[in-house]
Amino acid sequence: MKAPSPFRTVFPARLATRRRRVCDASLTGSAVLLVLLCGCSPKPAATPASPEVKPVPVTVASVRQVNLRRAVTAVGTLCAHEDVLIAPKADGRVLRVLKNEGDEAYPGEVLLELDPTDALLAVAQARAALDAELRKLQLAALPASDREFAEHLPTVPTVAQAAANLELATKEAARFEEEARRGVGSGANLDAARAKVKVAKAAADLAETEARVTLANARRLQTAVAEADERLRETKVYAPVPDDWAAWAAAVGPAANPVRYSVAARMVSKGATISPQRVTNAYRLITDHVLKLRVPVPERYRPLARVGQAADVRVEAYPGVVFPGRVARLFPTVDPEGRTFVAEVEVPNTDRRLKAGGFATADIVTDAAATVLTVPPTAVVAFAGVTKVYVADGPVARAVEVEVGTREKDWVEVRGDLKPGAKVVTSGLSQLVDGSPIRVR
Questions:
Q1: 234 with 91: CB under 8 angstroms?
Q2: Among residues 369, 388, 409, which one ends one of the domains?
Q3: Structural Rg of the chain based on CA atoms
Q4: Domain that residue 314 falls in
Q5: How far is CA 203 from the centre of its chain?
Q6: Helix (H) or strand (E) holding 219
Q7: pTM for this structure?
Q8: Distance of alpha carbon 75 from alpha carbon 78, whole angstroms
Q9: Number of Cβ atoms within 10 Å of the Cβ of 85
């Protein structure tokens, strides 16, 4: 008979105890689950009534019509009306400098002087040569025309002498011809007399030719005198005379003429030598009684821009001051990089407050009396790229999409499905959607 295994002897009680614990735990979990399911099951209850939506208290304002002056704003640089570089035409040493940077120079006023010694000698030499030729012709001055000289020609000494010799030879030949006709004269004497007439006539023609050559030489020398005088005049450098000088002087008088130059730069000093081999600029002059403001304008405004339109010009140096201008010209091309065209605005500057080279802003007026609709700034809502206003439509608010234009402190220009006098909501906008009930406070 086999001996009983020790495992069967030791473990049966333990195995039985473990089975009872597992069974108790299973029963306990099932009971808890049953209780939870019973507690979570819905209980029948009465359905409550939907709550009433309260109107949003708001304030409103009227859509107003405003006469607005439309303008295109652009910025640019003020340029001088004329910008001129002055270079002496003559050569020589600078004797006097009469104008410096910042000075004003009237048209025709002397700016600097060169040493005139060489030019004076050239003038004296040319005048002496001209006077010698005039004395040959017994003239104090050159005749104005060939007809006048032809009338004076018989009084020229050489011409008068030749004419007298021709007259004497002609009379002598006539006497010998009369003697030959009567048969008392010699044929040889007659031939000699006739030859003398030919020689005298040739001499008279030669004298007239020489007189006319002398006249031509005198005219050449007169040109040389004029050139020498011009070189002498060029030893003084003058401010040029602009085209509009005479018109302004006729309108306001020479003393009050606003057309004058301002010296922007001086490039030479006293004692410097002006060389004929190269151009030496002496002064840079500008006229600034009228300035040109050239501004780039976006291409989309090209159909609105016109020559003659008014422009309000402002500069930082004079805050709050508006300088009136006028569009003088529109450039015909568009910059392919910036997609802009250039508008040139002329700005009167007779008081010289504006300076060439300065920065300025121009408002070019494209419509002087445009009628627009405006709302208070607080009525405009912008979200996610959409701009709108809420219009009070009885007890509800209706959303209307708009485009915003000109902004001012108290109003904003809007374009959309709005009518003058309509009421727009100005407060409580964050609580509104399209169709929200409202209550006007």
A1: no
A2: 369
A3: 55
A4: 71-77+286-369
A5: 71
A6: helix 187-233
A7: 0.61
A8: 10
A9: 13
